[in-house]
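Sample entry (141 residues):
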Amino acid sequence: MLEDEGVVTRAQGYGTRVNNIFEYSLKEARGFTQQVVLRGKKPDTLWVNKRIVKCPEEVAQQLAIAAGSDVFMLKRIRYVDDAAVSLEESWVPAHLIHDVEAISVSLYDYFRSQQILPQRTRSRVSARMPDAEFSVAYSDG
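Predicted structure, serialized as tokens:
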């Protein structure tokens, strides 16, 4: 059971090893990068996608904007100490990002540099098998 959950790894000749699991809160006011740094670890990001798209209806409702509005769809693989821990997708109204290439590891840091202070954020977490886009990006990372 613990092996299926990724808590331990078994290897013949080496025994059972407890994996280093990194948990972070989606409810904290600070972002992923700050949480990682505060734990004495090294955050990193591999950007898979930074592009403007037409906002889908479901996302538009969450952002309180019109469906079809221009939004940045930002997709990235998050790392802690060089180990991939999550794939994140962020949707941001296009007018809030003036230079998408200026966003490095932390989206929160970019917003702060632009004097944008998010009033609230919403997160939805799901688990699924990696898609081809993730697999290609991860193998190159």
